[in-house]
Design brief:
- There is one protein chain.
- The chain is an alpha/beta fold and 172 residues long.
- The protein is built from five helices and eight strands, in the order H-H-H-E-E-E-H-E-H-E-E-E-E.
- Strands 2-1-4-3 form a four-stranded mixed β-sheet. It has a four-stranded mixed β-sheet with strand order 6-5-8-7.
- Strand 5 and strand 6 form a beta hairpin.
- Helix 2 packs across helix 3.
- About 12% of the residues have low confidence.
């Protein structure tokens, strides 16, 4: 059941790509009539995380997931939970790494530690909200955005990004 809930949550997060277009082209998004996707407030063991980080968390490390909606969410977390709140309790044996741990583990040079971070093609606005299981990361590489992609991370075609790719979730 936990794996199913986590998979559904992860699938919902993949819809965030449309909402990211607003970061770069808010006026174009209004012209195209795109609707921004909900951005729920997410916590693991009481620590807020960025939505794309969910792809870097092993489902086996999750003990439980609680979802708060409407007044229950905003009453507890304020306006940042206007789209709801997802509270994840990890198993006590789960080890989480921060972005700094990822830099160290993958020997990212200091000059590249200032790059914007993308997880599975989703731009992360605040890298301090990234948590991961290191063994859930397939690769970390410096890339330029694909100028033919439907979602742009930047208007600068030459800008480089630190792209983290998660390992695929096993099918069960």
């Amino acid at each position: 059941m936990k794996k199913l809930l986590f998979s559904l949550l992860l699938a919902g997060c993949s819809l965030q790509a449309f909402a990211q277009q607003e970061l770069i082209h808010p006026k174009e998004q209004q012209k195209q009539g795109l609707v921004s996707q909900p951005q729920p407030y997410i916590q693991i063991n009481g620590q807020q995380i960025a939505q794309p980080s969910l792809a870097l968390i092993k489902p086996d490390n999750i003990e439980s997931i609680d979802v708060l909606k409407d007044e229950n969410a905003t009453g507890k977390f304020g306006d940042k939970a206007k789209d709801g709140a997802i509270l994840i309790k990890a198993k006590s044996t789960a080890a989480f790494s921060t972005m700094q741990d990822i830099y160290t583990h993958y020997r990212i040079p200091a000059a590249q530690q200032n790059l914007k971070v993308v997880i599975n093609n989703k731009l992360v606005k605040d890298t301090s909200l990234i948590l991961a299981n290191l063994d859930q990361i397939e690769k970390v590489e410096v890339v330029k955005q694909d100028i033919t992609a439907p979602v742009r991370w930047s208007l600068n075609d030459e800008e480089e990004f630190l792209h983290i790719t998660s390992k695929p979730q096993p099918k069960k």
